Fold this protein.
Amino acid sequence: MSKTTASDPAPTAAEDQELGDAGSQLSTAPTEDAPNLPSLGVIGWARWFWRQLTSMRVALLLLLLLSLGAIPGSLIPQSGQDETKVADFRKGNPTLGDVYDKLGLFHVYSSVWFSAIYILLFISLIGCIVPRTWQFVGQLRGRPPGAPRRLTRLPAHTSWRTTAEPDQVHSAALALLQKRRFRAHLAGDAVAAEKGYLRELGNLVFHIALIVMLVAFAWGQLYKSEGNKLVVEGDGFSNTLTQYDDFKSGSLFTSDDLVPFSFNLKKFTGTYERNGPNKGTPRVYQADLTYSDGPYGKDEKTTVRVNHPLEIGDAKVYLVSHGYAPVITVRDGKGNIVYDDAVPLLPLDANVTSSGVVKVLDGYRNPEGKKEQLGFNAFFVPTFGGAASGTMLSQFPALDYPVLALSAYHGDLGADSGIPQSVYQMDKTNMKEFKDSKGKLFKKLLRPGETMKLPNGAGSVTFGKDIKEWAGFQVVQEPGGGWALAGALAAIGGLAASLFIQRRRVWVRAVKGADGVTVVEMAGLGRSESAKVPEELGELAGILYDETPPAPGPDDPADSPDTDQEPGTETPVPAEGAEK
């Protein structure tokens, strides 16, 4: 009777040597030899340093350092994103600001230390991928290694006797393994098969995807641009640097990289929840645009919504904010119009309580005929709560009961000094207040269509019935974004393949025994310990056992009436509990 062994003691070093090529190259990870320190020399040390840099543990360490280095970039104001916050931080924390400045923490992603980690990680990944790729290609071009001399030394094995000839067993095993998508061939007196190459392929795809993501990230940081523009209904925008309210870009970006396009804001539509706990929450928030792609492009209509940008080439136009722009008409003492325009005001809360200034820079003369400039602080609420509320705060974001509060000044706004000024703030250094009959600052609440007359015949201000709305747009160009997404998806797929696919080998040997009966030995070996290897081996052995007629063992009786098996046969039992 044939003997079946489920497991054997761990092989000795000498027996491990017996496996030879059979147990090698189940991974494309390069072998690391301990350096011979006394005879290293310059070339030896350089080789040792390169091996350390391209090892997996160093790559993981660099990836960890890169992640840790990005933390201050998200917690500390960055000069490339918000210069105002950086200036405020330095003003409030002068000592800490100097330390951060020396460490490059105000510009983390362009600092020397972050770039060094980034470049070393890039080199490490390339140095790891190239040799593993060539090794993997060599494995694909070769054949699975032949069977070791003693298959019983492998962790999962089985054997049985059969009346079939060795060639018949080999043919049946070859057909079975190829049907199960093993790469199989006859090597000497055994069939050698291997499966699970997608594990190593997934590993390589994961590393290559990391490089793609690094390159895409660097490309995007160097050539990105981001600008904001406030556009009032009826006005337009052309994608040039001078048109932006604020603009920032990567270090290699030039104005020639701007995508040529333009658009006009035809109408902004906003509706809000009227009742319930979500009162005031936007329900419809969209901007109707007419745009053209290129300097001579045909006008096309589109609607931009939150998180649904307009895409033109590499540029995306996002809708990011909204507010109101009351139409203000200013006349001098003689009734001549010196200012007539929609004034965009900046919202202060969720109900669009807004503030801003109106500046009359040219064309105005006071009652004495002298040239002066006028300035008005403006405070606007789309839904006024009434005098009983006691506050000038909007009760709802829609135009239910609009009220405009104006306070008036005259003098020199300082616009001719050459110093840039904000259109939303007024320099009162050289401005004087208009006084009312009580000697206080002249101010008044206006409803649409009402007029405020300035003291002493200085003119008037009219709040127009037509209240326009404005929309804030952010124009973003991020080259490499598609590559970064593709790299991320490929990295996830490659990592999943490397984690869940098992690389394993199977050998089937059939030889004539001393009594002339064919003895079949079958064994499997995986890259790492897994229950799948003995389970799969047991399934394959059971199928092959059924296809090869069993032979009686030398000690079996001639007949066995109390068993359903044929006399002298035995079902193979693979190692580690694998079942037929």
